[in-house]
Amino acid sequence: MDLITYLLIGIGLSFDSFAVSVSCGLMKQEIRFKQAIPIAFSLALFQAIFPVIGWFAGSTIQNLISSVDHWIAFILLAIIGIKMIVEGVKPNGTLQNFNPFSIRLVLSLSVATSIDALVVGLSFGFMEIPILYPVIIIGAVTFIASMLGMLFGKKIPAKCSHQSLILGGIILTGMGLKILIEHLWF
């Protein structure tokens, strides 16, 4: 895999965090740069840690499933991508009033938005891809996306966060398809 692939995966994974960040910006109009940094850092940190956990698990069981690993990677990425697309096409719900500065909420959001990164790490482990480079890219992209989402969230209509989920789902599903095609025909 190359830099472009890692960037696309990072962008695809960061759309959940971006959408959450947009919501934070919409909820707290007074959010400032310094207040946004810890939230974005937490989202990026978890988005970077979960692939490592998945990678270790994938590397451990890789020998047992090496003949079907590309199918597993495709299915997992497609499921996550389709889930994101479905979430993106749901009608806008009523925004609930919450405090995005609450540590408990930030940690909950960080874990919730990083589950798909765990699956991506699992796929990397199956394919025996070194994890350090992709994790750095995924974390950096997520941090930037989260900062942009929060700082500009109050200016972005809520429907755009749904569109970003759809785009992220398409990217992840496309990456799964790319992995499947590479293993089947190349």
UniProtKB/TrEMBL annotation:
Entry's transmembrane regions: 6-27, 39-58, 70-89, 101-125, 131-153, 165-185
Alphabetical keyword list: Cell membrane, Ion transport, Manganese, Membrane, Transmembrane, Transmembrane helix, Transport
UniProt-recorded name of the protein: Putative manganese efflux pump MntP
Topology term for the membrane: Multi-pass membrane protein
Gene Ontology cellular-component terms listed: plasma membrane
Domain of life of the native organism: Bacteria
Alphabetized InterPro entries for the sequence: Mntp/YtaF, Put_MntP
HAMAP family xref list: MntP_pump
UniProt-listed PANTHER family: MANGANESE EFFLUX PUMP MNTP-RELATED (PTHR35529:SF1)
Keyword Membrane applies: yes
GO molecular function annotations of the record: manganese ion transmembrane transporter activity
Family: Belongs to the MntP (TC 9.B.29) family.
Top-level taxonomy: Bacteria, Pseudomonadati, Bacteroidota, Bacteroidia, Marinilabiliales
Subcellular location: Cell membrane
Functional note: Probably functions as a manganese efflux pump.
